[in-house]
TrEMBL record:
<comment type="function">
    <text>Involved in the isomerization of 5-deoxy-glucuronate (5DG) to 5-dehydro-2-deoxy-D-gluconate (DKG or 2-deoxy-5-keto-D-gluconate).</text>
</comment>
<dbReference type="InterPro" id="IPR024203">
    <property type="entry name" value="Deoxy-glucuronate_isom_IolB"/>
</dbReference>
<keyword id="KW-0413">Isomerase</keyword>
<protein>
    <recommendedName>
        <fullName>5-deoxy-glucuronate isomerase</fullName>
        <ecNumber>5.3.1.30</ecNumber>
    </recommendedName>
</protein>
<dbReference type="GO" id="GO:0008880">
    <property type="term" value="F:glucuronate isomerase activity"/>
</dbReference>
<dbReference type="InterPro" id="IPR011051">
    <property type="entry name" value="RmlC_Cupin_sf"/>
</dbReference>
<comment type="pathway">
    <text>Polyol metabolism; myo-inositol degradation into acetyl-CoA; acetyl-CoA from myo-inositol: step 4/7.</text>
</comment>
<dbReference type="InterPro" id="IPR021120">
    <property type="entry name" value="KduI/IolB_isomerase"/>
</dbReference>
<dbReference type="InterPro" id="IPR023770">
    <property type="entry name" value="IolB_Bacilli"/>
</dbReference>
<dbReference type="InterPro" id="IPR014710">
    <property type="entry name" value="RmlC-like_jellyroll"/>
</dbReference>
<dbReference type="GO" id="GO:0102482">
    <property type="term" value="F:5-deoxy-D-glucuronate isomerase activity"/>
</dbReference>
<comment type="similarity">
    <text>Belongs to the isomerase IolB family.</text>
</comment>
<dbReference type="GO" id="GO:0019310">
    <property type="term" value="P:inositol catabolic process"/>
</dbReference>
<dbReference type="Pfam" id="PF04962">
    <property type="entry name" value="KduI"/>
</dbReference>
Amino acid sequence: MSHLLKKPQHVVKSEGVTIVHDITGEQNNLEYVGFKVVDLEKGSFYGEQLNGLECCIVVLTGRVDVKEGEEIFENLGTRDNVFEQKPTDSVYVSNDRIYEVKAVTDARVALCYSPSSEQLPTKLIKADSIDVEHRGKYNNKRKVHNILPDSDPSANSLLVVEVYTESGNWSSYPPHKHDQDNLPEESFLEETYYHEMDPQQGFVFQRVYTDDRSLDETMTAENGDVVIVPKGYHPVGVPDGYTSYYLNVMAGPVRKWKFNNDEDHEWIVNRD
């Protein structure tokens, strides 16, 4: 199995709290991005002290309360399944703060991290404030929920989006990359993809490769898997009959999403 493909681990943290993924630390070859998925049973709590990290808490499913300092955001979350395809609530918490998530119902939350040194205000990102964008044409169509885009100054480093790709379509396509710290031409952003499928027995193909092919991995990602993109192009193909969901987390030295397509496939963009 590719070292870039991470399967769910389901490690019990405490009563009612299960860590599905913990993609943090040097062993994951990521300097700027950290990612966790946590399952919470109704009434359970999960919290952290953010030492030198900022965090975007995304309520994937279920309902939760989030507390940070004197601020309490209650009954967050809008869906029981990500494939309801409606935006959800999120909370941004800056570095060196302490937060706590309480499950109002059974819930799954994604925790998106990046190193940070400048404290910013804690912010509720309400579902009804999220821009919904439709990208692509032909068999390159997807719907994007821009939770924390680079146009929103609420974070120091983090960029967070949700993407839906319908049956038989390609996403993150034509293949593009953002692995050069060379603005304004291109930005350096590491990335993670958290995948879900509808129906759940589905799969997608994701390739991660560089121009010189020093990195060239093609993976079969199944429901609940995470793919790490430290560099390179990273297209996703969705088989007939299945719908793909993924949550993207990106971060780098500059909070700007500026990518370049693979020149061999640039012609796809210019079709009539």
